[in-house]
Predict the structure.
Amino acid sequence: QVQLVESGGGLVQAGGSLRLSCAASLRTFSNYDMGWFRQAPGKEREFVAAIGWTGSTVYADTVKGRFTISRHNAKNTVYLQMNSLKPEDTAVYYCAAVDTSRRTVVPGRNPSLYNYWGQGTQVTVSS
C-alpha cells in the first residue's frame, strides 16, 4: 500500500522557519519524482517545489531563494526547508509522488502528473 505522510507543520511568525517532512512508503522510492504543493482556503492547489529522482530541483518563483527541497532516499523521505516565511505562505502543504521509471529529466510542476498524495500538514504564518 502506498502511503505518504507529511509532518512538521505548525504556527510560526513571519520571518521564521519550518521544516516539513514527507515519509513515503513506496516501492523503489529512488525512482520517484517528489513534489510539494500547497492549497490555501478558496484557492486551487499550487506548485511549491519538486525534486526528481536525478536530484534536480524546481521551485515556484514565489518561494525561490527561501525554500529548499531535498530527499534522503535511504530514509524514503523528502523535506521542505522553509525560511523567511510570509503570511502568504499559509496553506495546507501536500507531499506528492510519481513513478518516473527513471525516464524524466526534471520533475514536473503540474499536480496532475503526480498520482500519490499525502493528507497534508497545516502551515500558518502570522504577521
